[in-house]
Write a structure and sequence with these properties.
Mean pLDDT: 95
Structural class: mainly alpha
Number of domains: 1
Helix content: over 70%
Shape: elongated
Strand content: under 5%
Largest sheet: none
Radius of gyration: 17 Å
Number of helices: 6
C-alpha cells in the first residue's frame, strides 16, 4: 500500500497536480483578508509573546477567527501537499535511501503541530501561555529547518541526477 502511494505521487502527472494544488493553497493564504498573510506566525522562523500579540492585534478579531479556521483547515492540507511533493520527488531520486524521507515527514509533522499550537493561541487570545508560545515557536522553527534540509537534499539529488546523464 505504501509502495503504491509512493509510485502514485512520484508520477509526473501527480507531481504537477500536487504542485498546482500547493500553489492554490498558497494563493488562498496570500489572499486572506485582514492582513493575515503578512502577520502569520507560520512564516516566521522564531517568535515571542510580543510578536504574537502584535500579529494578533494587527489582524483584529475577525482576522483571528479566520486565521484560526485557516490554520486548522487550509494549513493542514498545505503540509500534506508539500510532504507528498517532496516524497514523490525523493522516491524518484533516492529510491535506495528511504531514510531521507524523514526530513519532509518531520517538516510536515512539525507544521501540523505548529497549526495546533497557533490555533490554541488564537482561541485563548488575549490570554497567552508562555509555554504554548514556546511550543508553537519551536514547532515553527523546527519545521523551517526540516524544510531547508529537505530542499537542500532535493537540490542535491536533482544536480546529481543531471550530472549522471
Amino acid at each position: 500500500m505504501i509502495i503504491d502511494y509512493l509510485n502514485f505521487i512520484s508520477k509526473k502527472k501527480s507531481q504537477i497536480t500536487i504542485f498546482i494544488l500547493l500553489n492554490i493553497c498558497g494563493l488562498i493564504f496570500f489572499l486572506l483578508p485582514h492582513d493575515i498573510f503578512a502577520n502569520m506566525l507560520d512564516l516566521k522562523f522564531s517568535y515571542n509573546e510580543e510578536v504574537v500579540k502584535r500579529s494578533f492585534v494587527l489582524i483584529g478579531e475577525d482576522g483571528r477567527q479566520l486565521y484560526f479556521f485557516s490554520a486548522l483547515i487550509i494549513d493542514t492540507i498545505y503540509p500534506l501537499l508539500y510532504v507528498s511533493l517532496f516524497i514523490g520527488a525523493y522516491f524518484k531520486l533516492f529510491r535506495k535511501n528511504a531514510f531521507l524521507l524523514i526530513f519532509p515527514l518531520m517538516a510536515g509533522l512539525f507544521d501540523i503541530s505548529e497549526n495546533i499550537q497557533v490555533s490554541l493561541l488564537l482561541s485563548n487570545f488575549p490570554t497567552l501561555s508562555s509555554q504554548n508560545i514556546f511550543y508553537s515557536s519551536t514547532s515553527t522553527s523546527i519545521k523551517w529547518i526540516a524544510i531547508g534540509i529537505s530542499l537542500t537534499v532535493l537540490i542535491y539529488g536533482i544536480i546529481k541526477k543531471l550530472r549522471s546523464r
